[in-house]
Amino acid sequence: MPSMDIVSETNLEEVRNAVDNANREITTRFDFRGVQASFEWKKPVVTVKAEGDFQLKQLCDMLRSQLTKRNVDAKAMSIGNASATGKNWSQQVTFKEGIEQDVAKQVVKLIKNEKLKVQAAIQGEQVRVTGKKRDDLQAVMRLVRESDLEQSFQFTNFKD
């Protein structure tokens, strides 16, 4: 019987590379000349630092574009609240690993509501989907990609 796993993984090495590229981009941008702005990578959290709230938003957009260039889904990124200390602002950006229980339940419910001839079961931080036809599994892939669940999903362990 064909089966596959729906997982949510982030390649942290690519995230580190994107942070390095974003730090290089800061040095070349005119609007950040003479401004103390930086990205700090401490696995799996990126700390964004700048002198103003508006600059923090610009830095988050820069990081998002660098992640896109490195083929890391920006949905995996979770931006925390901005905090000010004196004239410096900082913000934590974390990256989601694994599918949380409530999101996994939403995925299973989404699959069951579509009335496809597959079984979906939650196994830890992943969802295992089995069916009689390969086409049904591909329909599940399409359905999960098109859903708006605020998380990036990958499909692994596809067996025929």
TrEMBL record:
<keyword id="KW-0547">Nucleotide-binding</keyword>
<comment type="similarity">
    <text>Belongs to the YajQ family.</text>
</comment>
<dbReference type="Pfam" id="PF04461">
    <property type="entry name" value="YajQ"/>
</dbReference>
<comment type="function">
    <text>Nucleotide-binding protein.</text>
</comment>
<dbReference type="InterPro" id="IPR036183">
    <property type="entry name" value="YajQ-like_sf"/>
</dbReference>
<dbReference type="InterPro" id="IPR035571">
    <property type="entry name" value="UPF0234-like_C"/>
</dbReference>
<dbReference type="InterPro" id="IPR035570">
    <property type="entry name" value="UPF0234_N"/>
</dbReference>
<dbReference type="InterPro" id="IPR007551">
    <property type="entry name" value="YajQ/Smlt4090-like"/>
</dbReference>
<protein>
    <recommendedName>
        <fullName>Nucleotide-binding protein L3081_07460</fullName>
    </recommendedName>
</protein>
